[in-house]
Amino acid sequence: MPDPFTIRIFVPDGDPEGVRLIDRMNWTGLGIVFPRSKWPEVRQRPQFIQVGVYILVGYQEEDDLPTIYIGQADGVGNRIEAHYQNKDFWDWGITFVSNSGGLNRAHVTWLEYALVNRATATRRCRLDNGNAPQEPGLTEAEKADTQAFLKEIFQILPLVGLRAFEFPKAVATPKTSTIAPPQKESSRQPNTVIVPAQIDAFEKVFLGEDCWYAIRISGGMLDKIKYIAVYQKAPVKAITHYAPIDHIEPYGESGKYKLVFSEKAKEMPQGKIPLADATPVAMMGPKYTTFAKLMAAKKLTDLIGKA
Known about the structure:
By secondary structure, this protein is α+β, with helices and mostly antiparallel strands. The protein has seven helices and 15 strands.
């Protein structure tokens, strides 16, 4: 079980969405969170002339995963200023420096290396870094101290809304191990989600990656979902495949989820379930049903009624 901890947040301009200074008792570090719009002002703070590591965060197009850039510099403000001029994707950033001057260029180079490696391993963001940094040489004592500093960074980042460095933890584990239709269901409670998909995403993700993302699921349904079915949009316009769910984990930073299958998706045993007399907008978003109804359905309105 993780150890409990306390952080202190100072809001210098009184705006909780603006600049925030984050520190902890008995920690020599300082985190500075700032929106991009405030950068021309915040860059004047004395901390930005120090050695530090920084993370820039934003979103591109309709991607549910954040795009991040990780960097370091001796005089971190000058580097961020260059990104302010040349990188358009980021909306906010966070910088970590040392209050005691204990970080040097080798330390922050190692922190950059470790952060890039962690972001690559968790697969919860799009990295804007062009090249993966190499691990710099540190003494055994220096590495231990820098790892301790990194641990503090990892504890702070989720509290400012960035979970890209956390390995996803399952929020539900139905571990449905067989795709054979059950003979009876003990409840009429929905246990199957039907998701709409374009053909390319269906082939790449649903069939190719044995999962589906990014989907909103209400909190009360998370522990009930055991199966997923896919409705392919035009020109198919039908439910074509289904799969059992192994586990559900968070996806991105906006309350959406990834459903990981326990087996390869299979075609509907009764054949495609067409849109038929349902309205064209009936499958604009996820719908819930029972697995028994899914197995017996001949057309979409058998599952969701007429909208």
